[in-house]
Amino acid sequence: MTHRLMPARTALVVLTLTLIYACTLDKPIRQPPPTEEKPAAEVPAPPQRGVNPLPRHALESHKERAAAMGTVAMPSADVNSRYAPPHPDFRHPREAVNREVYGHHDDNPVKLVAEAPVSTFSVDVDTGAYANVRRFLNHGQLPVRDAVRVEEMINYFSYDYALPSDKSRPFSVTTEIAPTPWNHDTYLLRIGLKGYDVAPDKLPPANLVFLIDVSGSMMPPERLPLLKSGLRLLVQKLRAQDRVAIVVYAGASGVVLPSTPGDRKADILAALDGLTAGGSTNGASGIRLAYTVAAQAYIKGGINRVLLATDGDFNVGMMSFEALKNLIEEKRKTGISLTTLGFGVDNYNERLMEQLADAGNGHYAYIDTLKEAQKVLVHEMSSTLQTIAKDVKIQIEFNPTAVAEYRLIGYENRALQRQDFNNDKVDAGDIGAGHTVTALYEIALAGGNGRRVDPLRYGADKASDGKKDEIAWLRLRYKLPDSERSILLEQALKTADIKRDVDQASVDFRFASAVAAFGQLLRGGKYTSKFGYDDVLKLAQDARGKDPFGHRGEFSSLVSLAHSLDGADRHAQAGE
């Protein structure tokens, strides 16, 4: 009898020990699913590919919580199912979900001319925000508000401003005033700058260092593979007098290609083709090495520039944001500039990319397609590589007898103190060859109906010394690339130049207004009243003008797409 019971006892002991061991594990033993069926309404549907499953109100509440920590991190679309989890249930509990990082900024407020007549800011030629917004929309979601910088959306497009008469003055100044499309009681003041252009074959010799992130986060096709394809386009335009080096960084940094003449294209392309992604990201180490390589091949009187291409996911090494900026600011004093090219989704650090380029006397672009790489690196090669004016600042003083209120549209993170305008030690934006820069002010005329702020009962407007024919006084400061002393330009803006009908405004004025309205709608439409996507679309289509590369036509498509997505969000929030 005892002999026959031994196997059963042994089995019982084994089962008991198994249960004890299972209880010591971090994860509990999975229980079999219940026999009764769960109602269909309670089963979470898997997210659609390329579409964020959260409604916009949930995304915005997430943004507000993250903003308290100094950044805004937003979930992004699943771009390629090979690299993103198919469903949140399969995500490791310690894995970061929302890792896109944007600097937070509030819309510029309306200001009373009687209290604050002077507005000062640095120019901005970055275009990355527009391409990033396009990426959001094409992936089936509205962009997070802090991803939308209205001035970068406006400056993504070229405008037909007059060229400067000679190179002693590197850019021209164009102004125009006409009614605001979204508020017929106010006017838009447009200030446009146009740099002199240089044909690519007339550029000075270029010493370029491609600083390429080859960490594991760059593996998906919209990152390193797209980057390599884009740089191939630039390599085709290089000349014998140009030089290119390639520095890579992941867990460690290294020189893949020493400084090589631009006509040795086979060597350069072979080095690019051999790049593969893997490892963690020590960005600071790579930046130091890239500047060292650039310094060794420095061309006096030429273009000396590092082109940093990454998703900005600096997760190893120097972590401090301010320390990285300080490093770049020190290096720019050597005459070597920095341009940043952003790639990727999900973990994209846009805040870092935009501000590093600003610190490095370069500009920032986001590359979401090969067509965008062609725009930045081929069609706009001269403006990307050659700086013609640096530390460009704009200051405008409004006449209180002519203008009651104003607000600057965009440029929130480019604001300067009034005293900074005359201080040549204060850094500001740079303009490349052929660049256009546009700034828009919405103004309410004195005595008109467009005022948003009630006048003071006991206040009195300042006298204007009888200059009632002037709306404002415009000042600009800039430095030539090889100088540390600024040059001042000044001109009056006349009331006689006001156009009383928006249809009298130029095509470029109306198109820029449409882009400004669109950007404001994506940021919540605080000042656009009842002006909606349909109004933006009509304004843009009527003012398409010359569009050789199809950028303005694409803009209209994005407006239509945003309209549909916004409507879907509203229905989702309403529970329909």
End-to-end separation: 71 Å
What is the count of DSSP helices, taking H or I runs of 4+ residues? 14
Using only C-alpha atoms, the radius of gyration works out to 28 Å
**Percent of sequence in beta strands:** 15-25%
Q: Would you count the extended β strands for me?
A: 18
Looking across the biggest beta sheet, what order are the strands in? 9-8-7-10-11-12
Low-confidence stretches: 1-6, 22-97
Mean of all residue-level pLDDT scores: 83
The major sheet is characterized as:
6 strands, mixed
Structural class estimated from helices and strands: alpha+beta
Helix content: 25-40%
Q: What overall form do the CA principal axes indicate?
A: globular
What is this structure's SSE topology?
Layout: H1 2-23, H2 56-67, E1 72-74, E2 100-102, E3 111-112, E4 118-122, H3 128-138, H4 150-154, E5 171-180, E6 183-195, E7 206-213, H5 224-235, E8 243-249, E9 253-261, H6 265-273, H7 283-296, E10 303-310, H8 321-332, E11 337-342, H9 350-359, E12 364-366, H10 370-379, H11 381-385, E13 387-398, E14 403-409, E15 429-432, E16 436-445, E17 470-479, E18 487-494, H12 507-522, H13 533-542, H14 551-574
Parallel strand pairs: 7-8, 7-10, 10-11, 11-12
Antiparallel strand pairs: 1-2, 3-14, 4-13, 5-6, 6-16, 8-9, 13-15, 13-17, 14-16, 17-18
Helix pairs in contact: 5-6, 5-10, 7-8, 8-9, 12-13, 13-14
